[in-house]
Amino acid sequence: METNELIKKWADKVIASNNAKYIYDFSASMNGEISDEVVQKLTEAIVKTYSSFYDSNEKNKYIYDFISDIDGVSFDYIIERFGDTIPIEFFINTAENFPNAPIDKISDIIIKRGNYSDIVQFIQKCENVPTDNLIAAFMEKPDNEYALFYMGKIECMSYFVNHNIGDINIFTDYIIKNGKDAEIFEFIKECNKLLNEEMINKLVDALMTADDDNSYVSDLRYSQDQHGKYAYILELADKKIGDIGKYFDIIINSHDAKNIIELARITKWDNLPIIFTSLVHAVEKFDNLDDINMMASVVDSCRDNSLKFMLLDKISNTLAQYDDQSKLSFSKHQLADSISYFIRTYNFLNDNIVNKLLELNQTMKIVEVGIYFCYCSNSSQLVNYIEKCAKAVVNSGNIEAMYNFLINSKGYAINILMDGIMSSKNVFYIDNAQKYLDENNISYNTSQQLAYDFMEFMLDEQNQDKTVGEATLEFNKSNGKKVKKLTKK
Questions:
Q1: Cβ(193)–Cβ(160) under 8 Å?
Q2: What local confidence, expressed as pLDDT, does residue 480 receive?
Q3: Of 157, 231, 375, 407, whose CB has the highest number of CB atoms within 10 Å?
Q4: What is the pLDDT of residues 284-343, one digit of tens each?
Q5: Is the dihedral of CA 59, 62, 64, 67 positive or negative?
Q6: How many CB atoms lie within 10 A of CB 327?
Q7: Where are the alpha helices (DSSP H) in 285-376?
């Protein structure tokens, strides 16, 4: 039997094995000694072993080694024989690994058979591809929203734009017509440096009317309190992408205080006093004390001190002008609590807000603010306010509040508070208050009050027949004090 016949028979057995390594080893050992006809049969056999499974790379390696090493292997034959059957990725890998591969023919296969992701991979991996034809085909391919292993179509467009592939205007128009809000947001964010202002504005308009897609929301900085479209707008504003004036209109029209507060938080550093001030005023219109105090915290962190002072003054007056009878969403206690929080947190007060607090007659909140004034570094300048608070607490008749205010007063308004405690005739609080004063070396003149009390005692009908001595003894016994001290200077 002739050598050629033996080689053919041997080749047939090798081909029948369907083993890529066996086929490659045989072909490599006989390289240059087998005919083109046998090479084609071996080529066909080894290509058929191609597998797309993730664990098949080692086996597929022999196919590419075969194409690279064996004489007589024809790309044209492979394309002609397998162009309609072998997985697209085989041709993409072939074009990537072999500079002499027929790019145009492989491109035609991918355009004909591949999905949009195949086209993107081909463009990404291979050089000198016919981009125009491929992008045109890409635009016509349907999006696969359920694809788990490759980028969405609009995400691919972001790649094209950032790599200067294709027409940005065509991509933008497609996204405006077809994108969901999250996809539009991602496109703006990823491509903003290459988008002009008109494009961004159109994309933002489209984002606000597009179908909802919350797939990105969990990654957003502002997603905890703001959701969906407004979270995207706040994120763009924070990244300084697009027109802040446009975002202002969108957020104001959301009629959501949390959105407005967050935009204010973003713009406070940007030297935009008009927008910042407008956002503050917008929140003041909401009947929500928590929102007003939250906006106050934003104002308090503003670097522009004159603007901060002006806006805190405006907020304080807003709190002071609340009409409790017409506002049904909160109680007097809630308003007093908000005023107390505002004064203590932002160290800001004026006559209006203090008078409002006193008007609400919420004793414990008045004590809270009064004690705060006593502990301020400039307490001596606040004596008038401290005394107003002390008088309001005494007028309430709440002996516990008077005592609490007294022992935390640091010596301010002592006479007012002690007069109230003494008037209560409550021996327990009188005794403890006096002990506090003694332990802290704080003086208090009790003579006047005791004198008034003794006169009232003497004028009582049942005591009028008693001598001064008898009345003094009984008064001392009932009050725990010595009347003889009344006359001491």
A1: no
A2: 56
A3: 157
A4: 787 788 888 889 999 988 888 888 899 899 888 888 887 654 554 467 888 899 999 999
A5: negative
A6: 13
A7: 289-300, 305-320, 332-346, 351-360, 363-375
Q: DSSP string covering 402-421, please?
A: HHHHHHTSTTTTHHHHHHHH
Tens of pLDDT, residue by residue over 61-87, are 999 999 999 999 999 999 999 999 999
For the ranges 13-17, 174-178, 348-352, the maximum mean pLDDT occurs at: 174-178
Q: At what angle do helices 116-125 and 103-113 cross, to 10 degrees?
A: 160
CB-based contact 109:75 (threshold 8 Å): no
Dist. CA 29–CA 467, nearest whole Å: 140
Residue pointed to by tokens 């002390």: 390
Cα separation, 354 vs 389, in Å, equals 9
Taking each helix axis from N to C terminus, what angle separates 153-162 and 116-125, rounded to the nearest 10 degrees? 30
Amino acid at 373: F
CA distance 104 to 161: 23
Contact present, 386 and 416 (Cβ < 8 Å): no
